[in-house]
Amino acid sequence: MLAVHGGAGAGHAASEVVARGLTAALDAGWALLAGGGGALDAAVAAVASMEDSGVFNAGRGAVPTTAGTIETDAAVMGVLPGGREVSGGGCAMTWPANPVLAARAVALAGDALLLAGEGADRFAEDSGLARRDPGSLVHRPAPGPTAVPGPAAVPGPSSVPGPSSSSAGTVGAVALDATGNLAAATSTGGRSGQAPGRVGDSPIIGSGTWADQGRVAISATGEGEAFVRAGFAHRVDFALDAGTPLPEAVRAAFGAVARWGGSGGAILLGADGELVVAFDAPAMARGWRAVAEHEAGLERLR
Amino acid sequence: MLAVHGGAGAGHAASEVVARGLTAALDAGWALLAGGGGALDAAVAAVASMEDSGVFNAGRGAVPTTAGTIETDAAVMGVLPGGREVSGGGCAMTWPANPVLAARAVALAGDALLLAGEGADRFAEDSGLARRDPGSLVHRPAPGPTAVPGPAAVPGPSSVPGPSSSSAGTVGAVALDATGNLAAATSTGGRSGQAPGRVGDSPIIGSGTWADQGRVAISATGEGEAFVRAGFAHRVDFALDAGTPLPEAVRAAFGAVARWGGSGGAILLGADGELVVAFDAPAMARGWRAVAEHEAGLERLR
């Protein structure tokens, strides 16, 4: 089972470009799962696909900071083929073309859980990862006849100003493979017009990204500061540990995010294959695919 | 009430220098509390004192990375005189002489929760904070006739190698002021011999630093990766929310840290003034001061 999201927030425009980006991500991850691949590889492949699309606020589509710099954050958590649980992330990175691959490299190295800034960049370079194309340093809508401004576009007159448009376009994936392993991956260019160096919940294990084997995989999006303060993913996990059903745990965790003044969305996948897609932001781009089911698209609620 | 710690780990050497550093930190914070100052200012002053001492792995005493760079992390959480709750942190910083002041500046700005690397440095500079003395770029034991290698010294033959010597010398403080406000502050130079860019639990709100008004203030130290994975401070807070007594909540949270392969210590201060000092590392430098009580020193257990 595989689910993806492409951000939640008021800045979203439902579009074919976004739907195509989600579908391509599902296809990329699903090809691995269907071939007997692991959940971690599938989640990473799905996120890398969305990073490459240029449609979302991640990887090639990352939006600039107030200083005009592109800074990306990402994290992954899952299990290696040998059974070792791994997790790791990078933040305020400028080097990698695919921040999620840098996060995976941090996780596989198994030393640090989070690398920041120049150290993260150098680690990505030393890991042999491809460098971000300098020509992609300014966010552009994806090319093509049906191109419309992506969810990460700078808020225009039709967008709600302020924090509710933050982090729109963050991408993420959760996966459950045939062996029962769970994985999660999240990648973001930060919120639109953020200060240089600003880090949200995406690269923080236990906030925006989490995979607790036998329990739940989580990728969140939204106003990162509130998700960190709420300890979003950990909060869900603790509630599950106490016997709370997943939907109720998610509802309570969004309540905590709201108490810290934030909103957003998340995809959550239980070890039994239960999928919860939840958001209290005006819109969320999302899609999922299970063994005999394929659905992708973007809906707008309220 | 005010409590401070100077790190937990096997690398600790009980020394008069450390005891003096803790005492000076308590004095600095206490002077503010006794003068009617707020918990946040007191916690920050106590941590800044330890940063300035050169004795701990924070501020002036921060240990270098494998690349020889000094990179510091810090976070604060508390309440401003007007009643506004604030929290913030910085990581992988090289500029500020007092990383805890940079964290406070992030918190007061109220925009980002965490700034990383170059962006954090520039923010500290723009905030008018003093620059780290380039002459302090290599960790030295504190001067003076009784100087002995501080807790942050590079592990020698008498130290246990491996992760149990990590993060020794991180400093932190928790405070409760006369109006009932809680605050926490933590500052670190990272673990000894860490990779450039590596970020532990100290600057992550909800992991190594936390102050939930009316409930608990927390500053932790130890193997940061395990504290982040365990969601240490959030875990304690969630348990308190469920009615678990503080000592039991702390014990359970250390159990979670241990399940993630880590150990360390923490100081926790309840809204009713209950202080819990807990560590499962071989040693922890700590001290505390209440209205009519003053105790500071370093003990070694087991």
Describe the protein's architecture and organization.
2 copies of one chain form a homodimer. Chain A has helices spanning 16-34, 39-53, 99-109, 117-126, 224-230, 232-241, 246-259; strands at residues 2-8, 72-79, 85-93, 114-116, 171-176, 182-188, 198-199, 209-212, 216-222, 264-270, 275-279, 283-290, 293-300. In chain A, β3, α3 and β4 (114-116) form a beta-alpha-beta unit. The first copy, chain A, starts with a strand and ends with a strand. Chain A contains 7 helices and 13 strands. The first copy, chain A, is 28% helix and 27% strand. In chain A, α5 packs across α7 (246-259) and α6 packs antiparallel against α7 (246-259). Chain A is an alpha+beta fold and 302 residues long. In chain A, the strands form 2 sheets. Chain A has an 8-stranded mixed sheet with strand order 4-3-2-6-5-1-12-13, covered by helices on one side. Chain A has a 4-stranded antiparallel sheet with strand order 8-9-10-11. The longest helix of chain A is centred in the N-terminal third of the chain and has 19 residues, at 16-34. β4 (114-116) of chain A pairs antiparallel with β7 (198-199) of chain B.
